[in-house]
Write a structure and sequence with these properties.
alpha/beta; four-stranded antiparallel β-sheet
Length: about 525
Amino acid sequence: MGVVQEFGKLDGVLWSALWAPYKNSKQSLQTQLRQMLVASMLDGVLPALTYLPSTRDLAAALGISRKTVMIVYQQLLDEGYLCVTPRLGYWVGDVLPTNHLHLAQGSAAQTIRDDLPARSSSVDWSRRMSSQLLNQRNIDKPSNWRDFAYPFLYGQFDAKLFPIADWRLCCLRALNLLESYEWGQDMFLRDDPALVQQIRTRLLPRRGIHATEQEIIITVGSQQGLFLLADLFFEAGTRVGIENPGYPDARNIFLRRRADLVPLDVDGEGVVPNERMRDLAYAYVTPSHQCPTTVTLSMDRREALLERAKQDNFVVIEDDYETEDGWSEEAVPALKSLDRDGRVIYVGSLSKSLAPGLRMGFVVAPPEVIKALHALRRLNIRHPNAFGQRTLAMFLSLGHHNAMLRRLSQEHAERAAVLVKAMAAQLPDWEIQSTTGGSALWVKGPPWLNARALNEVAQKHGVLIEPGDVFFLDDATGPHRENARYFRMGFTAISESAIEAGVRALREAADELRGRPR
């Protein structure tokens, strides 16, 4: 062992500089201090064989308790980051692997790394890409949406409504040794049996669906389910009916497979089964809460759609993206539950009721389709996070999900009522599609309105809305200018107390926009 060196005794300025990036984070003080020390060691700022200040001196330099420093030092000692010499103190162990490339400031490797972003490429990447993914029309949401006072955005997470303590308990239970034998495996051709069981016995029966274990596959949200189905079934020229307006990401996924998209009309009862469906191979629909209008497909329309599918020999892909997000008193069975001819593939999601970041969905289809989807998923991501699957299975089995749904249903119904009332009071001439569930309103403004322009002005008033032209197959130019009048207002991310003020601010933005010369 080499000679242990002292790190500049206690240079308060130095330690304050190291501490600065961490001290204002939302983590605990112990976590902040540990992150600072580990980063300093791994980055070479505190090299091996360097003495650290005493717990008392470091605590004084950073303005934290000595107990916090003592706990972190002991943790790092237990894990081999630190060593200790009696009466001399703690020093940095040899924590880096022998082949580690040293990137301390001033090194040649650091210089090379800093130069990388400035390098140019002689490759024309755009010509090598199989499709123009970057030119797709997508729903655009600012990454800093939480900084806005009135975020009327769809599908965003309200942490106040999520049972953090219950989820943490399920995580801890999933972390015991016996459970780890299950989720620690490579499940490339199967899913967590406990989660599949909960889906088939707890979730699907509420939608009127009865399925076997062999008819269910877990996906990373419903969107991956759509991607896998498109990859499995679509090729260039496959005729696919899609609602217009409809879900932009489904449209983009299908276009990625060069499908021939056929626009399907939507009215106050949902998608319209008509002669446009005659030559379809597949029809993609959102019957529970049509995206983006939120209307629920009537029972008559459901029966007519299934009859049309049988008559014209096409398969229906039912996207029940708000599987568990309904507060209507009248439950409508899923299209899949009415299917007597085996023509409906059901795509479900738990991301909306839980949290978008958890990315958990599933597909219900015949066993031969599920088997093919497993093989395809293996090539894509192998399988969704197994620990997350087991945790969710615990969450469902212990009844936490049901309890959360009751709270969400009441909260969303109250927010919807407040939003509808505020819109009627502040913008009475604007059309609102009546909704019987879900978590958004579909709004049609007056003839002069351009929702994208309104969104730009509204952001200056602290308001975020979602322009609706992106939901239409045709853009909002030329003969399709009327599409620019639509926009969506979600209410999952905004508190009930802020809705009325948010709508008032939206009206002020509209007044400002209309007053501008055009």
